[in-house]
């Protein structure tokens, strides 16, 4: 065998082996017991009010070799909003805010993931709230991808944060005394299906 043939054979073997190692994007089930969607908003300039949603569902397609091939979709039950204050929560479910009777779901569906560092990326997508869909960009941190310390099953976790203007979605009650900018945080933990 000539040197040229040996090099060609070695290159082919290396290419095949690197291709075999590449994992295809996989569907992950989101662990709702360890997933949360929280928000905060300025209240009259005196304080910051925090809230969360108790019911949600979603899908995650994760490419561990190339995070940019990944995607996420979340569906949040707007009636599950809680700020740990019953009267305020009832008001938040009313037509003044989430109008949960008419718009029972809020959704986020990613359209693009762009890696920005070893464990960071931007997550672009569409947020639909009160029947209005607007583009949103979230800053994402890939917390950990690896075996669960107790079960040894593969797991993945990430956090995403961003800000929206509620008035962009037609939620104008109390402006400007109650803040227009709402800070969002989504924390997801998931395992392969």
TrEMBL record:
Coiled coil: none annotated. The keyword Hydrolase does not apply. It comes from the Bacteria. Gene3D superfamilies: Lipid/polyisoprenoid-binding, YceI-like. Residues 1-23 form the signal peptide. Residues 27-191 form the Lipid/polyisoprenoid-binding YceI-like domain. The keyword Signal applies. Keywords: Signal. PANTHER family: PROTEIN YCEI (PTHR34406). This is Polyisoprenoid-binding protein. It comes from Marinobacterium rhizophilum.
